[in-house]
Amino acid sequence: MTRVLIVDDEIYAVKGLVSGVRWDSIGVEGVFEAYHAAMAKEVLRREEIDIMICDIEMPEASGLELMEWAAEQCLPIETIVLTCHSEFAYAQKALQLGGNDYLLKPVIYSDLERVLEKTIRKVREKRKASELGDLYLQYAELWNSRKPLLIERFWEDLLERRFRPDRESIDAALAGCDISYKDIERIRLVLISLEQWEKPLTEREEEIMEYALRKAAEELLPILPSGHVFRDRRGHTIAVVPVGDDERLGLSALCKSYIEACRRYFYGRVSCYVGEPVAIEEAIRSYLSLQNAEYRNVSRMNAVIELGEEPLDAEFPSSSQPSMLELADLLEQGKRAELMAALEEKLGQEALSVEALTAMYHSLLQVVYYALHRKGFSAALLYENESWLDAKQAAKSVGRFRSWAEKVVEAADRLLSAQASSSPVVQKVKAIVAERLNEELTREELAAGVFLNPAYLSRLFRKETGMALTEYILQEKMRRASDLLATTERSVSEIAGELGYGNFSYFARQFRKVYGETPHDYRKLLKRAK
Q1: What range(s) does the Response regulatory domain occupy (predicted)?
Q2: Residue 460 has pLDDT above 50, yes or no
Q3: 523 and 506 co-located in one domain
Q4: ω into residue 106 within 30 of 0, thus cis?
């Protein structure tokens, strides 16, 4: 017999499934209930559950997060995913890539019964293998379920410099991933940049759709056993494609198909930045070059952009070479000691000339300026209350250059660290939003106002504020609406119009999302409280 757990924050939806599905006739002996992810985890720890019926959209922790937790715990459960969004039809196929079935809410009981019967057969097949004592199959299945996580960790560790990018270290890191060095000896990296949603989405909906975008990338791009699609700590979606597969399958054409699928099915505009073929030991430089290309691109959107093409910005300084980008990345991450160690390696070369030191002087300044500019800081801030050596003075000796470099790097690091939570870019975006609350602002318009790529701005804003840009705009508009409801006698329609909402019903729905009440009821509550 089979045991089922139903997880949904709508209690009546759970009760409806419990009473409406013919559990006995399809072979279910136990049905358990949970009304949020934390409660579901308690049940899963306590009971032996075979099948979990789980809603995607839940407060605090989504159904996807619960599924990821179950996978990390190696729980042998099958999952049936529920959602109320009909526009997720294409996401159905993406979610099924992980072996999950998918149903739209409100659930038709007969449809759920059919899906349950199929899932129960799958559960019974696994039990049969277990009863036969085939321990190897059990461990093989567990390994296969965890293998993608191990591969993803390998690529993250490589691109974040958690081990040295040499053959010996890479071989050691691959030992636990069941991947041969020869399979990934040469690769292409693809940075998938989400530029704009073409319809309003809440922050939770954005997270779910971004997950579906990554799953669709795994399907549409040539991601074979040695490749992978993952999200890095900076919020980029990165695809790793072994060289050979890219040419055989036509990587550029597949990227175009993926971009079109995202627009048609996910209401999202994306661009694909395609790196040049590199040895795996050079993956870090390719990775940083892709980030740099996205950061500088403010003119080409919804496109495939190959780094082998003409530069996006011909006036960008020579410091855009990967070695300089690596130094800038170390500075941005606050890894001052590693940056100075890299400089020291260059200074340790024999027979350094005045010309070489002068070139290093200008290169280091470009690194510092670049890192500051990415965070929205003016290079002029470096020179406040400071007197620096010029190139001629700093290049007189290695010792003098080293002293100058240490002070410059320390000053830049101090500036980035002290103002990490309030960069000028984010401050300016907030000011633009405040000034234009009566308009329907888009990410593209805000990005143009601060001269940044929309995708880069979205990630920077989310990282510094913990909030999606669209969610911030909504909250600011509704906060202004709340103030007007509390301090004026203006009609709700007038307030909606002032904030740029031509549709009163839509304004009321948005207000209720933020405050949990309609504008009329909210005003009544305020008056009662006086």
Answers
A1: 3-120
A2: yes
A3: yes
A4: yes
The 8 Å CB, 24+ separation contacts for 89-93 are 89/265, 90/212, 90/216, 90/261, 90/264, 90/265, 90/266, 91/208, 91/209, 91/212, 91/215, 91/216, 91/265, 91/266, 93/219
Q: pTM for this structure?
A: 0.58
What is the full DSSP assignment across 296-316? H--S--SSEEETTSS-S-TTS
Determine if residue 275 is left, alpha or beta; phi over 0 gives left, psi from -120 to 50 gives alpha, anything else beta.
Answer: beta
Same domain, 355 and 431: no
- Are 393 and 453 part of one and the same domain? no
The enclosing H or E element of 485 equals: helix 469-487
How many separate domains does the chain show? 4
Strand partners, 237: 192, 231
| pLDDT tens-digit series, residues 302-321 | 899 988 644 444 333 333 34
Neighbours of 501 (CB within 10 A): 20
CB atoms within 10 A of CB 74: 9
* Residue (of 261, 249, 255) closest to 192 by Cα position: 255
Between CA 362 and CA 368 the distance in angstroms is: 10
Domain identity same for 269 and 308: yes
Rg (CA), the chain: 27
Domain check: are 47 and 112 in the same one? yes
SS3 letters for 85-153? CHHHHHHHHHHHCCCCEEEECCCCHHHHHHHHHHHHHHHHHHHHHHHCCCHHHHHHHHHHHHHHHHHHH
CA distance 518 to 506: 11
In angstroms, how far is the first alpha carbon of the chain from the final one?
A: 60
Read off the tokens for 370: 């670049």
Q: Could you tell me if 383 and 454 lie in one domain?
A: no
Residue 122 lies in a domain: yes
The token pair at 182 is 């020869």
Buried b (16+ CB within 10 A) or exposed e, 136-168: eeeeeeeeeeeebeebbebbbebbeeeeebeee
| Contact call for residues 113 and 80 (beta carbons, < 8 A) | no
171 within some domain: no
How far is residue 315's CA from residue 407's CA, in Å, rounded to a whole number? 28
Torsion angle of the four alpha carbons 119, 125, 130, 134, in this order, in degrees rounded to the nearest 10: -130
**What would the pLDDT profile of 91-149 be if each residue is shown by its tens digit?**
554 455 455 677 888 889 998 998 898 888 888 877 776 655 454 455 555 555 667 77
Q: Which of 368, 384, 418 is the last residue of a domain?
A: 418
Could you list the residue range(s) of the whole structural domain that residue 219 is in?
A: 179-312
DSSP H helical segments within 175-238, as ranges? 203-220
7: enclosing H helix or E strand: strand 2-7
Q: What is the pLDDT of residue 127?
A: 74
Residue the block writes with tokens 């960069």 = 423
| CA–CA gap between residue 13 and residue 35 (Å, rounded) | 10
